[in-house]
From TrEMBL:
This is Mitochondrial import receptor subunit TOM70. The chain crosses the membrane at residues 12-32. Residues 396-423 form a coiled coil. It is found in: Mitochondrion outer membrane. Keywords: Coiled coil, Membrane, Mitochondrion, Mitochondrion outer membrane, Repeat, TPR repeat, Transmembrane, Transmembrane helix. The keyword Transmembrane applies. Pfam families: TPR_1 (PF00515), TPR_16 (PF13432), TPR_8 (PF13181). Belongs to the Tom70 family. It comes from the Eukaryota. One of its GO terms (cellular component) is mitochondrial outer membrane. It is a single-pass membrane protein.
Length: 615
């Protein structure tokens, strides 16, 4: 899991509740509603064919029927009680010396093929299916589809992937809504590592099965994760380093209470610095000034100026390295960040405080790169250098939150607050960690006490946005939406430039009223306020998937991908994007009307939310 600020991570936690299990496939529930209502296929149902055919042709089913179908789809293909029946009938027919119709003859061959398949004689099975296909009149498309599909199953056992694909394709030409043929072809594509074709086919399977088959869904999820991982590996290499938004950086900087880089320079230092330059600020002084004025783009070049100046001129080399390393880290330039931070850490002459902060920042870099042990080791080193550093404990707490080690996080928050009792962020985040622990324990008394702690926090730190926003999240979580909304309103008034507050409020609107328009408008507002708000793009994209605005969703996910700060994040976002693309491809291929899905999707959100809430 990527390093993010707790609020953002917690949003994901909440998102999972609101949007259901965050299966990357993009919320099949809604499609399910739609498709089952639409009655996928009425045309090919009631012919006199074996069960296999009915399953392939019939879309609309009751729950009971669906589960029956599922059981059958797990068995090998087309081998059912009815086959045995047909076999008996065939014998009878032979006895009576009756002339068989070509279709019946073909079916008999198929049944022979099935018998061979069942006995592991795949080559022989294929010969029988050949005959079945040969005999079958071309107008009996549903039957032909089965024969091809069954032959593909035999080829699959022989690992002849190209043959599998060919036969599945032919099967689908005969019956374009035959989930099993899609699924088998998906597996063949996986075997030959054609992952986007594989994804398209498994998505088609999911849709045709109306997301009722866990096997398929789990398979789809795995394929999505794999394509996401592959794309992210490439994406990280091509990634253009980019500073996050001002607001993000402000939040980041505010999360340190004793950072020497943020301390005001003494009057002496300032005059000193100003005097050394003719008319313009230079090097670290310029960087510091830019930081005070939130002109963050200037910081890295200004620090470089300091670092590259000659030894005699450079008084603030370590400071400049630490600051540049910090901003490289924020930009996602991990190699550069590590170089700068290492330089400070390994310089025994550098101020202990600077080295401690370099270690704290390197720790979070390691966590972002999913090197947990190295990250924790850096924190241990800080503890030896500066055991009373309040930021050490606060930052380590946040890492523990990311790692879902809530008890450890709680202890760290407590230490942070003991050293720096006025650290409002640490105080209220501690409340939030306690809340989650209380929830896990199902302890009502404890939850009540924690709500009181939140109220105390607000009284104690009325100027701290996080007190209001976390209070709002907790209230929303308890379905006290009205109150929660008031806290969001206050928080947004205090920090109107804070995009993530708007996103949170939007998510709550979905939870509260299923009000998708309001939610979208808030998320859009978030993007207007901060066009680098990754969370807004991701969340809005997810909502658009539910509304079946898939093209828009893809666009939004791609914007989020550009802003992703770690491979894990990027992997998740690529999986979401790929799922949306596959759904676009499949709905086009199957001719499913998207605008109709969208209406139902809107109704679906409310019911899904309620389902999630009752958990
Ligand atoms: C599908 O069949 C059912 C019953 O056989 C019928 O009520 C329904 O209108 C049909 N739907 C379509 C779209 O033809
Ligand atoms: C969707 O269709 C496009 C264009 O045909 C194709 O490039 C892509 O591989 C397909 N599937 C996925 C998952 O991207
Ligand atoms: C499918 O998975 C869901 C969630 O994991 C579970 O609740 C459900 O019982 C599963 N259904 C079947 C048929 O296995
Ligand atoms: C730094 O200076 C600003 C005003 O210039 C002041 O508001 C702030 O409290 C000072 N911070 C510290 C830590 O002294
Ligand atoms: C913005 O809001 C989030 C909560 O949604 C909070 O965690 C963060 O600290 C806020 N940032 C600022 C600068 O107010
Ligand atoms: C789908 O939507 C279109 C336009 O919104 C409408 O004309 C059509 O009847 C709908 N089809 C179904 C099956 O609901």
């Amino acid at each position: 899991m990527a390093y993010k600020f707790p609020s953002i991570k917690l949003t994901k936690w909440q998102l999972a509740l609101v949007l259901g299990t965050p299966l990357a496939l993009g919320l099949g529930f809604y499609l399910y509603n739609k498709l089952s209502a639409k009655d996928l296929d009425n045309k090919t149902t009631d012919k006199d064919v074996d069960s296999e055919n009915k399953k392939a042709g019939k879309g609309k089913t009751s729950k009971l029927k669906a589960s029956k179908t599922q059981k059958k789809s797990l068995s090998i293909d087309g081998i059912t009680e009815e086959d045995k029946e047909t076999e008996k009938r065939k014998k009878l027919a032979e006895l009576e010396n009756e002339r068989l119709s070509p279709l019946k003859e073909a079916t008999i061959y198929k049944n022979e093929g099935n018998a061979c398949y069942r006995n592991g004689k795949f080559d022989e099975a294929i010969i029988f299916y050949d005959k079945a296909i040969d005999k079958c009149p071309s107008e009996h498309k549903a039957d032909l589809a089965i024969f091809y599909q069954n032959r593909a199953a035999s080829y699959e056992m022989l690992r002849k992937w190209n043959k599998v694909k060919e036969d599945c394709t032919k099967s689908l030409q005969c019956n374009p809504r035959y989930p099993k043929a899609y699924f088998r072809r998906a597996k063949a594509y996986e075997a030959t590592n054609e992952m986007s074709d594989c994804l398209d086919d498994v998505t088609a399977t999911c849709i045709l099965e109306m997301f009722q088959n866990n096997n398929t869904i789990m398979y789809a999820d795995r394929v999505l994760k794999q394509t996401g991982r592959e794309d992210a590996e490439k994406g990280m290499k091509d990634r253009v380093p980019m500073l996050p938004s001002k607001n993000f950086i402000n939040t980041y900087l505010r999360s340190f209470v004793a950072d020497p880089l943020q301390a005001n320079m003494s009057a002496n230092e300032v005059t000193d610095l100003l005097n050394t330059k003719d008319d313009r600020l230079y090097g670290f002084a310029r960087a510091k000034h830019a930081m005070d004025e939130q002109r963050y783009d200037e910081i890295i070049p200004a620090c470089t100026e300091e670092i590259e100046s000659s030894e005699s001129e450079s008084q603030y080399k370590s400071e400049a390295l630490l600051l540049r390393g910090t901003f490289h880290l924020l930009s996602g330039s991990f190699t550069e960040a590590k170089q700068d931070l290492d330089a400070v850490i390994n310089n025994a002459d550098a101020d202990v405080k600077l080295r401690a902060y370099a270690l704290i920042k390197r720790a979070s870099l390691h966590i972002q790169l999913e090197e947990k042990d190295q990250g924790l080791a850096d924190f241990d080193q800080v503890q030896k250098l500066q055991p009373d550093n309040p930021d050490l404990y606060h930052q380590r707490a946040q890492i523990y939150i990311l790692l879902d080690q809530l008890n450890e996080a709680l202890q760290e928050y407590e230490k942070a607050i003991k050293i720096a009792p006025n650290n409002a962020m640490a105080y209220v985040q501690k409340c939030y960690a306690e809340y989650r622990l209380g929830l896990l324990a199902g302890d009502q008394m404890r939850l009540l006490m924690i709500m009181n702690e939140f109220r105390n926090a607000i009284e104690k730190f009325p100027g701290c946005v996080e007190c209001y926003s976390l209070m709002a999240q907790v209230l929303g979580d308890q379905q006290q939406f009205q109150q929660a909304d008031q806290f969001y309103e206050k928080a947004i008034k205090m920090a109107p430039e804070n995009a993530s507050l708007l996103v949170h409020r939007g998510i709550m609107m979905l939870q509260w009223k299923g009000d998708i328009d309001k939610a979208i408008s808030l998320m859009q507002q978030a993007i207007d306020v901060d066009d680098k708000c990754e969370l807004a793009y991701e969340t809005l994209g997810t909502v658009e998937v539910q509304r079946a605005n898939l093209d828009r969703a893809v666009e939004l996910f791609e914007k989020a991908i550009k802003l992703a700060k770690s491979q894990a994040e990027m992997c998740h976002l690529y999986a979401l994007r790929n799922a949306a693309i596959a759904q676009i491809n499949v709905t086009r291929k199957l001719g499913i009307d998207m605008s109709n899905i969208s209406a139902l999707a809107q109704a679906g959100i409310a019911s899904q939310t309620m389902a999630a809430d009752t958990k």
